[in-house]
Amino acid sequence: MSIDRLSNHRFLLGLVSGDRKNEFKAFGRDWNERSEIFREGWDLTKKSLTHPNRLHFSGNYYNKLTGSLSVVPQLEDGYSMPLVAIGRCRQDLSWLANEPDAWIWHGIGEDETAPAVKKLNGLE
């Protein structure tokens, strides 16, 4: 990925599900399916970064890839670009604790932080 190379591997890719109905309508997507759409998009993004040659992918929301597409430039061998979930993305805490490399979430009160961290630690 060009920006990753230009930043000397300091690039973090943040993904968010979106929460505005008009955004989903503009792309012909059902706002009520945003959780599933996000997770499938996450899987496609991760696969395109970890298996960039002749991508194969089949899902319900994104086009089928049959091996005729490759990502260029590719990440260096042994390096994986960190993926960050922004917000809850309508995912459960178990997914957030185990799938992304990091998670950024706002809107949690100071008194709720310690119980949330304790719960996340138990989900490993």
What is the terminal separation in angstroms? 30 Å
Low-confidence stretches: none
Order of strands in the sheet with the most strands?
Answer: 1-4-5
Supply Rg: 16 Å
Order of helices and strands: HEHHEEEHEH
Q: What is the arithmetic mean of pLDDT? A: 87
Structural class: alpha/beta
Q: What's the total number of strands?
A: 5
Q: What's the number of helices?
A: 5
Helix content: 25-40%
Give the DSSP E fraction (strand runs of 2 or more residues): 5-15%
> Shape, please?
globular
Main sheet characteristics = 3 strands, parallel
Task: Explain this structure.
- The protein is of the alpha/beta class and 124 residues long.
- The chain has five helices and five strands.
- Strand 4, helix 4 and strand 5 form a beta-alpha-beta unit.
- The model has no long low-confidence stretch (mean pLDDT 87).
